[in-house]
Structures are given as structure tokens and as C-alpha cells.
Specification:
mainly alpha; 193 residues
Amino acid sequence: MPITDSNLTPTQNPRGTAGLWGGPFVVGLLLTLLGVVALGAVVLTSLFSVIFYGAMLAVAGAFEIGHAFRIRKTGPFWMFLLGGVLSLVVGAMLMARPGIGLVALTLLMAGYFFASGLFRGITSLSDRYEGWGWDLAYGLVSVALGVIIFAQLPTSSLWALGIVVGVEILSRGISIMAGALAVRGVLHRRLPA
């Protein structure tokens, strides 16, 4: 039987190896570029994030209401119905008034940063486990970030959420590209010369 590209496994076929790491690398590159764009337009990123979050809440609420009626005789009907109505109403409010929703989400984010940093810092100081200094530093930075965001409200609502979303997208893209390059390195080491 003649050896063709279709008879080779992906690790024996150079074109097959590109398919294993090339696709994820391109996705990571596109996400990295999207993160850079998001960081370049933090106000639009913030507003888009609130509208997107509101839309997702509304859709989830509608599905939850539908699910409540499907299980009304066999399950916790009121829990799903009321939870769905709440999600639908909050989602609709976020989409209708994204500016107010942005301030509310920024306040929530500032509170989260402050509380999680405080808890992490206190825990690291009281337990003194291995590497506790890094957790203490993380906690102090998180508390400071929460205080800065809260002190600059409502102005910080224009940039804070956009920066967090932009950095998340950027770091996710870089992480995917790094993983793809690691796969490429492993595949190149395993290919016969």
C-alpha cells in the first residue's frame, strides 16, 4: 500500500501537525487582537459588556421561566419561575439603562476586589503557609484596586469594567497562543527526522 498524506497520523504528517496547533494559535491571536482593541476603547467595552450581560440574563431568565412550566407538576416550580422572572427583569433593566447598570456593576466589582483582597490578606497573615507573602501582596493590590475604583465612582464606571474585560480577553488570547506553541514544540520533538 503506497504511503500518502491520508495514511499518516497527524504526528507523522507535517500538514496534520499544523492543524493541531495552528487553529488554536490563530484563535489566540484573534483574541489577543480583540483584547488590544477592547483596551483601546474601554468605554465602549464597558457599555458593550453591560448590554451583553443584560442580554444573557434576559435569555437565561426566559429559559428558566420555560423550564418552570415544564416541571410545574414534578419539581420546584416557584423557585424556577421567580428566579427566571428576576433574571429577565434585571437583564431587561441593564439593557434599557446601561449607564446605571454600568455604575451598579462597577460598584459590585469594587466591593468584590476589596472584600476578596481583605479576606486573602487576613488569611495569609494568620496562616503563614508557604508562599503566604504572594497572597498577601495579591490581597493588598486587590484592596487598593477596590478602594481606587470606589473612590472614583461614577467616573471609574467608564473605564474599570472595560479594563477588566480587555485584560481578560488579552490574557486569554496570549494563554491560548502559548499553549498552541507548546503543542507545536512537543509535536516537532516527536516527528521523525
